[in-house]
Amino acid sequence: MKIHAYLIFDGQCEAAFNFYAELLGGKLELMRFADSPEAGEVPAQFHDRVMHVCLTAGDQVLMASDTIPQYPHEGIKGCSISLQVDNVPEAERLYAALSEGGEVQMALQATFWATRFAMLTDRFGVPWMINCVVDSQQG
């Protein structure tokens, strides 16, 4: 069994996942509502929205879609996407990119459990945690 996060957006899915693919690396597979055999069941103004997207980076997968009126969306609450990184420079890079235009709940800093840790919500409304337990660059 594998457990994967699935995010729901309200029209920002493609922009968010293009950003995540550039930031995290990996391959995007995207399908729009217009490409679905059920496209006739979706109002035309929502055909360009993302029905399903999958970002595959190594053996990690992050998936998402946009919402449509039949399935209202209240935002992402009560969870975070957690990134476990191997070194401080990578934690700093991710923190800088994800926090730009977003809201920081806890700035990137040393904690009693990690060399660096941060909590933030990116400009797309997705909550993230960045955790670097041991800096592999320090040997």
Automatic annotation (TrEMBL):
Q: Which Pfam families match?
A: Glyoxalase (PF00903)
Q: Can you name the source organism?
A: Ectopseudomonas khazarica
> Could you tell me which residue ranges the Glyoxalase/fosfomycin resistance/dioxygenase domain spans?
2-130
The region annotated as signal peptide is: none
Question: What's this protein's name?
Answer: VOC family protein
Which InterPro entries does the annotation name?
Glyas_Bleomycin-R_OHBP_Dase, Glyas_Fos-R_dOase_dom, PhnB-like
